[in-house]
Amino acid sequence: MTRITQFTYVLAIVALIMGISACDQLVGLLTERELSLTVPALPQLTGISGEVSIGLLYPMTGRLSETGAQMKEGFDLALKEINRSQQGDVSIKFVTADDKSTVDGAVEGYNRLIHETGVPVIIGPTSSSQCEAAFPIAQENRTVAFSATSAATGLSAIGDFIFRAILTSDAHIPNSVSVTHEKLGYMRAALIYDELHAIAVSGANAFRMALTENSVMIVTTKTFQTGETDFSDELTRIKASNPEVIFIAALPQDMPAIMIQARDRGIPFSVPFIVPELSIDDVQAAGPAAEGLISSKSWLSTDANRLNRAFVVNYKAEYGVEPNTWAAHSYTTVYILAQAIADAQSTDAEAIRNAMANIENLDTIFGNFSFDADGDAVHDATILTVENGEFKVFD
Questions:
Q1: Which long-range contacts (CB under 8 A, 24 or more apart) does 337-344 make?
Q2: How many CB atoms lie within 10 A of CB 174?
Q3: Sign of the four-CA dihedral 339, 342, 344, 349
Q4: Is 182 exposed, middle or buried (CB count within 10 Å of its CB: 0-12, 13-18, 19+)?
Q5: Which of 130, 266, 370, 371 would bridge with 106, disulfide CB 3.0–4.6 Å?
Q6: In the Cβ-directed half-sphere of 183, how many Cα atoms lie within 13 Å?
Q7: What is the pTM of this model?
Q8: ω before 125 within 30° of 0 (cis)?
Q9: Residue 169: how many CA atoms within 13 Å on its side-chain side?
Q10: In 3D, which of 99, 102, 94, 103 has the Cα closest to residue 55?
């Protein structure tokens, strides 16, 4: 009887332990499930029926096509979530066009979407140079233009139908310079930038102004042109100027090559790179050369924001990989636009424009999102550094 009692007691303990373990596993599963069901407050398109056609212009071909494919995944996931939530027969439909990674392609795409399909809103194009040429077409035709990724200063001021979802150069570069200067104490800086691309020129100007304000000497400035792949001459001259830090203003696709060649030319890791918005894909493309890089970013996959956690879980479930910054901005752009359409209760371009201008403190994966008076994004940014190939908060 004693043995039976002891055996029963042991079984009870084992069952209790297994039960606790099972509960722990269930909590984990429930957390994942809850996350997968949590999305931004889903806008309800009341007062509208049928399909709402929205122009979507992004790079399907050309040198930005890989970025375009990542953006398309963000666009599509948001569209799927929003359409699935609607209670009536209303749904949003993308009318797509290829901006071909060129300025001419963006202009052609805007003209086709406006004059042939008559969409009230166009999401895109991708780069600042493309937007500089295409935005006036939208303004002239009173069509809402909403770029997810163009960050050059001043483009939204082209007109009151122009909006952007990414932080502009003048919104985050000055802070990144002041914070890094205070922490690192550098006094000699070098600058290299693409003199043909609007975002690079805008970034370079913002860096210059911020460095001057922080009493940092720019010991050398070197330029290159879009499409160049050999930066050895520029980097050799930069090395000779003995800078304490190097600022890079270029398309994200060019930054890995610049960093790799800089380290190959003997520029030491004690001289960090400071760059604007950069994705983890570009960091990984640069490999060890990106170690110590510092970047001001508007989005981080590990941010504890509940909507961001849900987005990462849902994106991984849909595509099998973690999202990058371009997918995140594309996803958020669709949600912001859908909220404006819901607020307008109309598919009229002017009504949507008015609703967009009034968006303030919208809950998004970036946190609270608003537009300023020019139609540019307003939300918090984070300064990050690369450690062991991963982004960490710079402190």
A1: 337/54, 337/121, 337/123, 337/146, 338/43, 338/45, 338/78, 338/82, 338/92, 339/43, 341/43, 341/45, 341/48, 341/52, 341/92, 342/43, 342/44, 342/45, 342/46, 343/43
A2: 18
A3: positive
A4: exposed
A5: 130
A6: 14
A7: 0.83
A8: yes
A9: 25
A10: 94
CB under 8 Å to 175, separation ≥6 — which residues?
296, 381, 383
The tokens 């993308």 sit on which residue?
94
User: What sign does the CA torsion over 180, 186, 188, 192 have?
Assistant: negative
Residue-level pLDDT, tens digit, the chain, 395 residues:
344 444 344 344 334 334 433 333 333 333 444 444 455 567 888 888 899 999 999 999 999 999 999 999 999 999 999 999 888 889 999 999 999 999 999 999 999 999 999 999 999 999 999 999 999 999 999 999 999 999 999 999 999 999 999 999 888 899 999 999 999 999 999 999 999 999 999 999 999 999 999 999 999 999 999 889 999 999 999 999 999 999 999 988 899 999 999 999 999 999 999 998 888 889 999 999 999 999 988 888 888 889 999 999 999 999 999 999 999 999 999 999 999 999 999 999 999 999 999 999 999 999 999 999 999 999 988 899 999 999 998 98
Say how far apart CA 289 and CA 271 lie, in whole Å: 11
Q: Which two tokens stand for residue 18?
A: 């297994």
Count Cβ atoms below 10 Å from residue 183 Cβ, excluding itself.
Answer: 12
